[in-house]
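Review form for a predicted model. The reviewer records the input and the model, then writes brief findings.
Reviewer: anonymous (R2)
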Amino acid sequence: MDGLTVACVQHRMGIPASREEFESVVRRFLRQAQSKAAQITVFPELVGVMLAPPLVSSFKLGFIKRADQAKQPTASVLQRGVGGISEAAVGAMGGGFRGSVIRLIRKRSDDLRDLYVEVFGNLAKEYGTAIVAGSLYLYDAETDSLRNRSYFFDADGQVLGFQDKFNLAPDERDLASPGDDLTVFDTRFGRFGILIGRDALYPEMGRLMAIRGADLIIGIAASPGAPQANIIRSALALRADENQVYTASCFMLGPNYLGTDNREEYWGQSALMAPISLTAKGDGILVQAGSGRTESLIATTLDMDALQNTRETSRFRPRTDMHLGNLGKVLGDMYRRGLVIEQALDEHRAGPPEPEPRPFTFESAPLSFEPVSASPEDNIVPPPPSVPEAMSLSTPDQDAEE
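Model under review:
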């Protein structure tokens, strides 16, 4: 394949009143992606959660919706006032958006998943583009837990697989469980992987994807506040150079309805990135959104032949040239035993543990005594008799006399 055109959607979190309202927003972005001949269109983390409100009771949804409208940048003074009253009413009914979504997922996870798969599967087929459909919280029957999960839809609408988030944010640790399988999708467009949120911060995950043949690593995130979003984007830029792959950083924007510890709004300046040597300005950026606060779609064509040529001719070959010295043992032990890096290093510095003393047994204890060399003037007690002698009814002298 000479090139792969990828589009990245910078989406705003909202509370649609119906499936049709949600689809109308997604269609707007897919029309833009189609105009750029995108073969893969990427939506950010938690986009699928926006399909939960249409499954909530219409009475409560009305209050949640008014509270959301009050948070819109274009909200009037009247809407903000009504929104405050509505938010208080939602709280009196048992929690706002977060509480309603959590209860819905736990009671009707299958309904939410079916709606999500139907909507994005149909849209992928209609617009002829593969879709990384953001993520949502779903119940996983195999592990009996909730997961933050992103699905990949082929251009014919079929589900090709999913990726679970490994490293959960503090706000979601009481809601979901970490993933345990890393997937590299083998598609008609090539091989690629998905990193959700903080997963992008860990070099090992990107390296494993590269080892398994990924040419594109897609990062999707819903990051409260600019600092966290910038850290994730910087990490994805590093993943591009250290693995000689293309990467994407695709962010959610707007109100943070699911936050507890950190209620800052979602922020992020989405970008498609490459190894520095493949970018015109030498900054690793192929294309980026104009702002981290407004919705947008960015797209570019990734030159796969140029990427392969870089791997073969570059003097800098991080995929193959890596010397770890003695630290290889530390890392191997850390991964095998599930240690954090501080624990592994502390054990390495301390050296191997002292062997535990063996318990006393008759099999391990000697039954005879070695003679002791001594000078004549030393008052040496003669060694005790051997076990057969001690057990004999006669003494050695008696045996000699007989």
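Findings: The chain has eleven helices and 15 strands.
Further findings: Residues 124 and 157 are 5 Å apart (CA to CA).
Recommendation: see findings above.
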